[in-house]
Design brief:
- The structure is a single chain.
- The chain is of the alpha/beta class and 263 residues long.
- The protein is built from nine helices and twelve strands.
- The longest helix has 30 residues.
């Protein structure tokens, strides 16, 4: 099933009959439509906090609500969700003002032939945006994360360290720990690169278990890791980290029934 054959819509509408009419039009294009309906500001805010919709279709004239008010709330909560106004009582001037304010489109209830093309256009835009975001995420992952361990790499570590130093502005002490594994080069020479790579993953996992969420752990390259501790109370805090990491890394490792110790 195409991703847009199934449609999740939020209707901002006070008329059940009008929703039925809109669903009948949309079902000519979309095989499955899940929808929810709200008709006041409180309900809209609540549903935007809990449910993510592909699209919002909004009436303009409701007893206690209008499309411009709904649009402001949607932009505040989820500006990426397109909002299409479908109304039988909206002047061209009001429609133009709503479009200028960020509405995706305005379709008259007297001519719903434009509804499906408008919905399809907005969903295609969302799809392209999603593809671009995935590409950017992949570029960011390659540029700033180590492909083997999944940890931040040297470039990310430097960038993050400089940012934290600037934010901190000497308000508190910071610490940086650089860790090398003793005689690590003997592992690939004697056991092969696969065992060496698995060992690096074990090291990364064990160090992560020793540090708090506020710390930044990175693989600088080879068997070298670095930890940035953004706030320390003194040298004793650093010694505690060193002692704990030493104990964790010193535990016997077993890969393919081969046991060895790290230090």
């Amino acid at each position: 099933m195409s991703p847009w054959k199934k449609l999740n819509i939020l209707f901002i509408e006070d008329s059940s009959d009008d929703i039925e009419l809109l669903l009948n039009v949309l079902q000519e294009k979309y095989e499955q439509i899940d929808y929810r309906r709200v008709e006041d500001e409180k309900s809209l805010r609540e549903i935007l906090d809990t449910v993510k919709s592909d699209l919002i279709i909004c009436d303009n004239n409701m007893p206690a609500f209008d499309a411009r008010s709904a649009l402001r709330i949607v932009q505040e909560k989820h500006a990426e969700i397109p909002l299409i106004i479908v109304s039988g009582l909206m002047s061209p001037a009001d429609a133009a003002a709503a479009m200028m304010a960020g509405a995706a489109d305005m379709v008259s209830k007297d001519d719903l032939s434009r509804l499906v093309p408008a919905v399809n256009r907005e969903l295609q835009k969302l799809s392209k945006i999603g593809d671009l975001e995935m590409e950017r995420a992949e570029i960011n992952r390659v540029a700033y994360y180590d492909h083997l361990t999944g940890l931040p790499n040297r470039e990310y570590f430097i960038k993050k360290t400089m940012a934290l130093i600037e934010e901190n502005a000497l308000k508190s002490d910071m610490a940086m720990l650089v860790i090398n594994i003793n005689r690590f080069l003997q592992i690939p020479r004697s056991m092969g690169s696969r065992i060496a790579n698995l060992t690096l993953k074990i090291i990364a996992h064990r160090i992560l278990r020793c540090i708090s969420n506020e710390c930044v752990l990175a693989r600088l390259g080879g068997d070298r890791f670095a930890i940035l501790v953004p706030e320390v109370d003194g040298i004793e805090t650093v010694k505690d980290y060193i002692e704990l990491i030493g104990k964790k890394l010193g535990k016997v490792s077993s890969i393919d029934k081969q046991e060895f110790c790290l230090s």
